[in-house]
Amino acid sequence: MAAREHPSAVDTRHRLLQAAELLFIERGYEALSLRQVTARAEANLAAVNYHFGSKEAMLQELLSQRLDRLNEERLRLLDACEADGHVPDYETILGVLFVPALQLGRSPAGGPAFLRLLGRVYSDASPFIRDYLQRHYRPIFDRFFEAFARALPRVPRNELGLRLHFALKALSGILAADDMDELLAELSMGQPLGDAELLARLVSLVSPALVAPLGNPRQVGLIERLLQQSETIAAAPGDARACSREAGAVSAPARR
Q1: 52-88 pLDDT, tens per residue?
Q2: Which residues are CB-contacts of 23 (< 8 A; sequence separation ≥ 6)?
Q3: Does domain 65-218 have CATH number 2.30.110.10?
Q4: Gap between the Cα atoms of 66 and 51, Å rounded
Q5: Which residue of 107, 160, 225, 253 has the smallest Cβ count within 10 Å?
Q6: What is the torsion angle, in degrees rounded to the nearest 10, for the CA atoms of residue 25, residue 105, residue 164 and residue 148?
Q7: What is the mean pLDDT of residues 26-32?
Q8: How would you class 184 by CB atoms within 10 Å of its CB: exposed for 0-12, middle for 13-18, buried for 19 or more?
Q9: Is the CATH number 2.10.110.10 carried by domain 7-53?
Q10: C-alpha dist (Å) from residue 155 to 12, 140, 144, 151
């Protein structure tokens, strides 16, 4: 029979993981230190060495605990949507990404910080996090990429990769900044909405990044005019300052 850890050891391990998660969300991987973790967990460095061996091993266990179940549920839902050869549209696939995340965020297994953790994981630029995601979840990324490619057959694959990268990076930044209650309050805009309506709004906000035209002629012309205006202003700073002084002189009598 395998030896069981003493309850106090289990509690220490849990507190270390909990502290590491909160600090990772707040500061990112590179700025997180073991001394910060042990101080928040009210433990010592020896406890980290005993339970995990290193900062890297501790974060690997944390990410595995938090992400494995999420991705398993995403894959099961995607399989169900693709049953009998059905090709779901891109909005459905976005929903497949979002629905399990929200459900876990509402459950004790995820907790209110779960969405912020996802945002931090996908936006953290440290080589350790990037390498971990590549090694452990590359097959899942590829599975969803192929699903989006089937849903958007007219979008070239390299362009689709760019669009997904920017869409999910932008969403990750939002998730990392807000806890779940704050994010849902922003999406609801003060209205009493159910989860389906909230997630539909999120899908509608992300969708244009996948399907809106890239640099159409009207947009290119608009940006060219702005670039010219900016160059003109930069080339004549004296005139710009003079305009500013004249505007202040005109408005000065009104303040008397």
Answers
A1: 999 999 999 999 999 999 999 999 999 999 999 999 9
A2: 32, 36, 37, 40
A3: no
A4: 18
A5: 253
A6: 160
A7: 94
A8: buried
A9: no
A10: 50, 21, 15, 9
